[in-house]
Amino acid sequence: MIRYLAVLSMIALAAGPAVAGEASDVVKAFYDDPAALSDPDKRGLFTGPALDFLNAADAAWDRDETVCIDFGFAVDAQDYDDEEIQRTLKLDETVSGDTASVIAQFDNFGQPTRIEWTLSKDASSWLVSDIASEANQWRVSNMVCE
Fold first, then answer.
1. CA atoms of 127 and 13, how far apart (whole Å)
2. Is 5 part of any domain?
3. Domain boundaries, position 39
4. Which of 47, 122, 128, 142 has the most other CB atoms within 10 Å of its CB?
5. How many helices (H) and strands (E) does the chain have?
6. Residues facing 118 on adjacent strands
7. What is the DSSP letter of 78?
8. Is 140 exposed, middle or buried (0-12, 13-18, 19+ CB in 10 A)?
9. Which DSSP category does 27 fall into?
10. In the predicted model, is pLDDT for residue 24 greater than 90?
11. CA nearest neighbour of 47 among 136, 132, 126, 101
12. Which pTM value belongs to this model?
């Protein structure tokens, strides 16, 4: 019985979200579940400009169904090949104090894609504060949703 409980405990720990570790673990969670970026229940993973924009986008939709986000930030596209992204995803993390930059590089329908994630560390975890694509010249912290 004790072995059974120990195994169950290890499975539960392994199955939990990877958001309390390194900054790249937080970013990886968005590639494991790309819909998490638009899920209001996941707002606790964001801070600063990213959180402000997502909250404004939610408010605009609730007010009059204004669409402020018409593509997936994590994949820089409206459509994506999850299998290809999972197979080609590489994360490069740089940490400086309470700030981290994670570069996600992957292929999506054969197109090389590079997304820059900026994270800030609070007392217990890394939180996404900005997301950007140099190739398509957008940065969430520069977006406005009214």
1. 20
2. no
3. 18-142
4. 128
5. 4, 5
6. 101, 130
7. S
8. buried
9. H
10. yes
11. 126
12. 0.82
**Angstrom distances, CA of residue 97 to CA of 3, 121, 128:** 41, 8, 15
What does the block give as tokens for 134?
């140099």
| CATH of residue 86 | 3.10.450.50
Residue 21's pLDDT is 53
Joined tokens for residue 45: 């993973």
Pick from 91, 110, 105, 109: which is nearest to 135 by CA? 105
Instruction: Say how many domains are in the chain.
Output: 1
- CA 32 from chain center: how many Å? 9
Place of tokens 């007010």: 63
Written as one letter, the residue type at 2 is I
Q: Model confidence over 42-91: pLDDT tens digits?
A: 899 999 999 999 999 999 999 999 999 889 999 999 999 999 999 999 99
Asked if 107 and 4 touch (Cβ cutoff 8 Å), the reply is no
* Order of strands, sheet of 90-96, starting from the edge strand that comes earlier in the sequence: 90-96, 99-108, 111-121, 126-133, 138-139
